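#onboarding

Welcome to the new folks! Below is a worked example of what a typical request in this channel looks like: someone posts a single protein sequence, and someone else replies with the predicted structure as tokens. Don't worry about understanding the tokens yet, we'll cover that in week two.

Example request:
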Amino acid sequence: MKQNLVILFILFSVIFSINAQIASDPNDEIYSYIDLWEENGLVKGLPLLRPYSMQAIKAILNTVIESGNSLEQKTAQNYLDEISKPFSFDIGFYNETRTDFNSYYMQTGIDTKIIGSFSPIVTVSAQFGVYLLDNEHGNILPRWTQPKKDFLADWTSFEIGAKSFQVSQSLTSGASIGNDKVYFQAGFMRTSFGPFFDTGSIISPEAPHAGHFSFTYRGSKIVFTSLLLTLVASDSLGDDSWPDKYLSMHSFNFFPGPVVELGVFETVIYGERFDPMYLIPFSSFYYNQVFAGAHDNSMIGLIARFKLPQSINFNTTLFIDDIHFNDLIRFNFRTKYKVALQAGISWTPLYKTFRRVAFEYLLVTPYMYTHKNSNFPEPINDTKPNYLNYTHKGQNLGSSLEPNSDRFLLKAAFAFSPLVNIDVITSLIRHGNASTGITLGDGTIFDDGYDDAGSATFQGATRFLSQDVLEYTLQLGIDSEFQYEFKRVTLKWGLGYTLEAIFNKDLNEGDTDVNNLVSISFGVEF
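Example response:
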């Protein structure tokens, strides 16, 4: 009887779905529209830290309704109608299946979603779900990408025939207090920071959710943000879990003219204690770190954005972990660079069919995001928690690429009707192991570049993609979403396909792998 009920539950989940917008999730589709509207110039001066408060999102939607074309006005009005209710409570059923034709992955479950306002200045947005996962063969995703939904296993499983489904929970929550210009947020959610909101190298929305506490001020000439994330440490192999790891960040963005935005930001990773000094807004994290004994891992970054005519945008970020300043001022450029550099140009005309095209380049130098553990001997063999590397639950907080990698990315967005959206993406990714022939390190974010004696091997040269064997990944993908509206009911289908070719896979010379990856989703919204 139990198995029959579970089968009925799964079948029902495939054909019935209710989805409300979740402002506390930076991967929610509303943020993809906000990206388009900002690049087109409909809205300006938005904070680089996401998610936004509900008050800020309402202000954005009202601006688009006032100044956008008919299609953008309709889209914004639909969103505004949905999130302007005093309180909405939705129960939904969701299903997604992914396969490479050799194995498959499926998630199906119940979602409860809450959006509401206790007052004009206090809002909440939350989602809680219980899911059945068939993940015996992994997530079945294109290489160098991560799932967009977080799950917590509760050690319960259902057996249906020969298949075992893992019961897991999913939670996203956020509350904000303030208005659209000044607000404080607290929640358990994913976070994104930087002008490359979905592919960024600073804080990526692909990183797992965490405790999030942030303050945002959005003025006409300056935007200030302050962020605290409560993280989970892993050992220097990415295994196990320990609490008491933190990331603090603050950023200042300036608008010296109508077409220029300049920004500077700092981050610091630390653990085994909570240090309120890193909450001081007008201070230097590096100064604070050295003042307290230099036991932490601080980094600094620069941002430049240029709004060119005809909705053309140029963005660039430089995230610096460590550089040899003395060498650089002597014009010795053969030195160490632990940095992530990202640059991109986009055109977002928001035509009826053609919406956007963008080209991006990202490089991550060797040992960027890594940091030696304070515990010796050799950190790679250490099973104690690493509180200093740029990871959360064993995953990079920044780019999904490993150190010593780069990526060329071209993507375009189309809308063949208000109810048919198609995205096309192609990319080339290169990766090498900078420790080859130097140490026994594997070149991942858990390889800190130190030898057995505890000496850094990257002081004199960076060794960026200079190895004899590099892995090359070519990807061509298309993602489509189709909707059909009938009175108060919306049918929604999703279909994605990625052709992927990997050469010298896992840095084994001559090994080639070709994958055909398909994802399918279906839902009904009321």
